[in-house]
User: What shape does this take?
Amino acid sequence: MSLLREGMLVNGHVYSTGTGQVGSENAPKKGTLTSRRSLVITGCLALVITPCAMVDARSSLASPAAPAGVTMKILVLGGDGYLGWPTALHLSEAGHHVAVLDNFARRGYDFEMGVDSLVPIETLQARIRVWHELTGKEIGCYIGDLTDADFTYHVVRDFRPDTIVHFAEQRAAPYSMVDRKHAVYTQINNVMGTMNVLYAIAEIDPDIHLVKLGTMGAYGTPNIDIEEGWIEIEHKGRKDRVLYPKRPGSFYHLSKVHDSHNIEFACRIWGIRATDLNQGVVYGQQTPQTARDDRLATRYDYDAVFGTVLNRFVIQSVLGEPLMVYGNGSQVRGIIEIRDTVRCLQLACENPADRGDFRVFNQMTQSLSITQMAETIARVSPEKVTIEHLANPRVEEEGHHYNVVHSGMVELGLEPHLLSDTLIESLFEITKRFAHRVRREAMIPTIDWRRASSLIGL
Amino acid sequence: MSLLREGMLVNGHVYSTGTGQVGSENAPKKGTLTSRRSLVITGCLALVITPCAMVDARSSLASPAAPAGVTMKILVLGGDGYLGWPTALHLSEAGHHVAVLDNFARRGYDFEMGVDSLVPIETLQARIRVWHELTGKEIGCYIGDLTDADFTYHVVRDFRPDTIVHFAEQRAAPYSMVDRKHAVYTQINNVMGTMNVLYAIAEIDPDIHLVKLGTMGAYGTPNIDIEEGWIEIEHKGRKDRVLYPKRPGSFYHLSKVHDSHNIEFACRIWGIRATDLNQGVVYGQQTPQTARDDRLATRYDYDAVFGTVLNRFVIQSVLGEPLMVYGNGSQVRGIIEIRDTVRCLQLACENPADRGDFRVFNQMTQSLSITQMAETIARVSPEKVTIEHLANPRVEEEGHHYNVVHSGMVELGLEPHLLSDTLIESLFEITKRFAHRVRREAMIPTIDWRRASSLIGL
Assistant: This one.
């Protein structure tokens, strides 16, 4: 029996048994339900087509649970990732029609570095199938690379989203600082992928709302308060509202700055609508949706490259390793819990920016120094915890000013979860359960900002 | 007889008849004279190896004419272009040891659009030969593409410059706005080429001074005065010196903003030295060096894509065509004459930035509105001139504030040539001599900022 079924998309073509033809396009009108799930395969990875992706092309998408008028078609780029996957589930549960897109680059980085998520994760296709089994809701699936413009245009034409949530970028500062190739890869992947998305929106449907993930790290640590994307300046007796000046701390962070400039320009010339979310460091591993079934789990990274600081500290404390603080630890980070991330994404989608508007939110809920984070973990941990200071491999200021405006999301309705004992306790449990999977040496930072080339995967 | 001679570089390898071996590297110590001229061939164009490039590999570089201590080894990236070539000659005449690098992309754009420089130009190899014949001075020559990192590293290792002058970017805003492919090409070519140069400096010799061409268009038209790259901001009672906020007007201008952010970061983490030159619109076609011989002429572009506004107005007036003003003409541009450009480059090279310093100059000498430029040409032209207003194909403000600080270059010693009748008269003469070469329809703007895709080459 052939794996191909009627209506499936393979390499950008609709497969049809009825006519024996392969059509090049199938764009249902926006706002109507598409009667099939799509699978598009293209891009850089050789993929085994798993049965889960081969669901009946004629089965309908889940009926909306959200109140009429709120239901949207939302395409989640990078929907296989740490945050993309929980966001897709959260939006699906909220009643939206969701499709995910991924090229599995993130899974590829694991192979490159010889690490893996501490919590085992299923294939994207299995995850989607489990979600369908548990909830009756369907999530569309497109496999491919945003730097492949034909693919990107095809997906936008096929799914016809109201909103595109864009997580599909290389997201680790240390990874971008490995060497020239990793820096160039990060900027091409991130900036050109986003460029293709912008053009697809402009050419196919300028009404699509782009919700783009950025980073608080794009601002650097200025000696003035950090506003939400824009700032009113008075200079030599004149005033203007300008993009907040950025001074980012890695080639990754720079890619987000480049994205923001490109997106602001696209809003200005084409009148498209965009929300730029400068997100703080995310911690936590579970949302109500991912917690339903082990097979819905999202990634939980502990290594020095992709592990975010709070998650890494929890893992180190469980393993009885010292918490590794870079430098004197006075560096401050904006942070946010994973449950707030998915809620912020929902709020951004359901309250779209106006046409032509480049809207920016600082997506974080509180600021803590690295030392404060370490001390919090040390206080709550059931194990005896020590803190160790390493020479800071990054070039960044210590003892700097850090006061961030982040009221936009609260005005939209966010009720922040602040760092609490409860959350950390649940993280300890998860960590203990999978502690045997840790490769301890992967927690040692080997990528030095001051060197143009470092070794990884040791 | 073989075209290959001992010591030549072909595809990054030193050709040696003495040993029969091809070595992979030959890096003379910095500050010493290299005893051969180099030819490296790589990259995207198929090239015919011309005899001019095959000069005796054992001939020495010209002896320095400049005072001891001032003589530098300067590598001019984009040394075949409108400004790169005159800059190379100017620096050579000033006694510096100059090599040029080019991939001939600019000549390729002419084929794509079916246009050509109004003034005929020789091949790069012929130009270099003529300069040697007339002055006895040699200019080294590297043919290849900066996005090819192996090539870029090789050239830096081989020539060992004290200073790298970087003109090698796609420089036309309209070209970047043709469609998605041209936008992506422009940003990859410009930003990744520069990234490779930054890494080559960091890895081979962090003491090299990068002198990078940017554009006044990167600033946009803020309602506050434009400072030189950095601005002191007071905000909520606190102060900082930050990068001047940019709001550029095309994907080309955005590429320069991305470059600047990447370069500032490289200075910060690796302690390299860079000068960013935000240049105004350049006009004029001759420098004392290019005027010596017709075969040393630089480009003179009149088309709507690469022709800069003042040069285009001169050509239109000579042809009896109306001067085409986009919109109401109240848009203001910073401008600079070509003789001041080459002098600014010399000043920047001879007064390098400090290690770790990201130094910025606004390389322009005066501000004029488009209407003022048209009126100046109309007043001086021997022909009867009319002015025609077209719907502005760009998205830009009219009637905006524009007050630019540009004192840095004057403090280094620049004595500006302001727009004068004399200069324009010489431009009229050049234009008349070659007016028969104009393709008139190429002066009509066909690239519309508001559309995501426009046609060219019609």
